Amino acid sequence: METTVFRPPGEDKHPLVVINHGSPADGSQRASMGRQRYASLSSFFVAHGYVVAAPLRRGYGATGGSWAEGYGSCKNPDYFDAGLATASDIQATIDYMRKQAFVAANHNIVVGQSAGAWGTVALSSLNPPGVSAMIAFAPGRGGHQPDVGNCEPDALVKAVGRYGSTARVPLLWINAANDTFFEPKLVKRMVAAYNDAGGRATHDAVGKFGKEGHNLASCDTGASIWQPLVEDFLKGK
Questions:
Q1: Of 7, 170, 172, 225, most Cβ neighbours within 10 A?
Q2: Which long-range CB contacts under 8 A does 226-229 form with residues at least 24 apart?
Q3: What is the CATH number of domain 3-234?
Q4: pLDDT tens digits along 55-80
């Protein structure tokens, strides 16, 4: 997978952060998608002593190949397996990066936005070795469908409950109030399903961000909102 890597100075081993991108609503844009560097997130973690890897998953941009993350039709979406497909690419990135001489084996973190966050939540169900915490910005799939809003909200809730039933990794779940992909009532249902099944999510619902709250993690101006939440969550992780 085409991957951007940022490193702190020096040759010492540092823990890893894998930052995972979303998926464009228009599928025709996947092939031309550029590297998603998440400048503010990457700078934040490098400054805190982490190596950052930001992969382009299968079916996106220069990585190419077949897209693995499809969930089928809105009438009967398979969000569960779609999330696990994303999680597989995230895990492959972790496995590769942990073999590098400058990456520590433990205290690693997985971060995702939108579809990448949904893959992060899916990966939490597998409790990957060496990963001590996960952060999901606006996780979900099937958002922004014409005339219907979210594709099938009940299916999202059901799938995330299945993830939570085996997940034991601490997870920070962040959503903005004006996220038009996954509105606050749906997010509350999703977090409740995840935690009621046994997951360990801390939910931080923040106020409105810009014109579209779904972009909180990808816009530099969102850093002042999420940084204190992330710093507090990561204490002791």
A1: 172
A2: 226/137, 226/174, 227/44, 229/172, 229/174, 229/204
A3: 3.40.50.1820
A4: 999 999 999 999 999 999 988 999 99
